[in-house]
User: What shape does this take?
Amino acid sequence: MDARLDLFASPVAAKVVKHLASAGAAIPDSVIPHSTQELVKIRASQLNGCGFCLDMHTKDATAAGETALRLNLVAAWREAKVYTDAERAALELTEQGTRLADHHTGVTDEAWANAAKHYDEEQLVALVSLIALINAFNRLNVMTQQPAGDYVPGQFA
Assistant: This one.
């Protein structure tokens, strides 16, 4: 598959990606665990059908020590026993925040309250920001049909 646009050759795309990436850098691992951040990125990317981001974030998560079992079960997190209650709350918020049009309030009060049980206000800001950012990256890559499979962990560090 060939990309519709060469985002790596475009000066405008380079600026957009640079600013999106720098916004993501504002979310340190100390606010939300790195493993949770990767699970969130993977789940949103699954929902959005973004192969480029799935390739990147599953490889980055593996390189950071995440297990194949947990990565393979992200799409079925509700039935899987391998996630903490906090991770489940983050994944639910990710799903609802990615599928905003599915509910008239976007994110249900129940999903928000559950996330708030596990994350303080600063962590919720980071989580909501992370969900918004990965959705932006997903849309950029899906619309331009960026191919997946060639990512090397740390390639964009």
